[in-house]
Write a structure and sequence with these properties.
globular; Rossmann fold; 310 residues; single chain; alpha/beta; DNA polymerase, domain 1; 12 helices
């Protein structure tokens, strides 16, 4: 299976409130969520799926109501206008990495295989993880490990990487794992490696910038009463999503109108994040860290996002 959709029924039930509406899956991947959206929509409904990974195109749904766009979702507004689908009734984002990307050794997303250290979701362009590991100065490397991987001993790890690359360039996932071995805690090697690989992947694909761009565009892109559902997999993403849904900005700064009333573009459909059930986690262990949040647009609030601090 290319990718098993997480929190499938919960997501679709909270997202769709117009069976004849236009919806967008900005992280199409294996098409699991998209197929279920199409199952729910009437013959007059429409779905647009975005994915920057060339491999995802092979999963495109053969349905006249579906349009596949091979692009990063940071270009959401441009393509919605091109396909005359603006504004829309709902937006879905299932953030993170697909099972296919993790399990395909050549993609370099996993330390389980000794393959080229790539990690690009769009392999046609951009900087690879290997180029970052071998070229970033110590301080810059430590900063991204701490910010994107929440690695506590980021400076020691950055220093270890810097020392290892002076002897030979770090070109593969196996070489990186080997270079890090002196600092990997016994019994918890996988946890720390996962944090480090996550940090590099986020940097390679500029994931936080893309998420900020999605925030900025989604308010205009949604109709009044339209909904946005976002599934995140680590605390950094979930915190940004939670802030955005509550305040209209990723920083969590609540603005007020002249009378002191809170100004926010959304009504929360989920007061707290929806988590996968124990049964789902047993069937799909990669669902264990997923958190689903859903909100509904209630006003034409003007969003102003400040540049990311990362």
């Amino acid at each position: 299976m290319y990718h098993q959709p997480v929190l499938l029924q919960e997501t679709i039930a909270g997202l769709i409130n117009n069976l004849e509406g236009v919806y967008v899956d900005v992280t199409f991947g294996g098409g699991g969520h998209s197929r279920e959206i199409l199952n729910q929509l009437s013959p007059n409904g429409k779905l647009i799926g975005f994915d920057q990974d060339q491999d995802a195109k092979e999963n495109a749904v053969q349905d006249t109501r579906f349009q596949f766009v091979q692009s990063n979702f940071k270009h959401l507004k441009k393509y919605l206008q091109f396909y005359k689908a603006y504004p829309v009734d709902g937006i879905l984002a299932d953030l993170g990495v697909s099972s296919h990307q993790f399990d395909e050794p050549s993609r370099g997303f996993s330390y389980r295989f000794d393959k080229p250290l790539d990690m690009r979701m769009d392999t046609s362009k951009g900087t690879t993880a290997s180029e970052i590991v071998n070229s970033y100065p110590n301080q810059k490397l430590a900063k991204l490990l701490f910010a994107f991987g929440e690695v506590q001993n980021a400076h020691r790890i950055a220093a270890l990487i810097e020392k290892a690359r002076q002897t030979n360039p770090i070109l593969t996932t196996g070489q990186l794992a080997e270079a890090l071995s002196p600092l990997l805690p016994k019994g918890k090697e996988n946890k720390l490696l996962s944090q480090i690989f996550q940090a590099l992947r986020i940097e390679v694909n500029a994931e936080i910038d893309a998420l900020q761009s999605l925030f900025e565009q989604s308010i205009d892109a949604l109709k009044m009463g339209g909904r946005i559902a976002i599934i995140s997999y680590h605390s950094l993403e979930d915190r940004l999503v939670k802030n955005f849904f509550k305040t209209g900005n990723a920083e969590g700064k609540l603005h007020k109108d002249f009378y002191g009333n809170p100004k926010t573009p959304f009504k929360l459909i989920t007061k707290k994040a929806i988590l996968p059930t124990p049964q789902e986690i047993e069937q799909n262990p990669r669902a264990r860290s997923a958190k689903l949040r859903i909100a509904e647009k209630i006003t034409n609030y003007e969003l102003k996002i400040t540049p990311s601090n990362f």
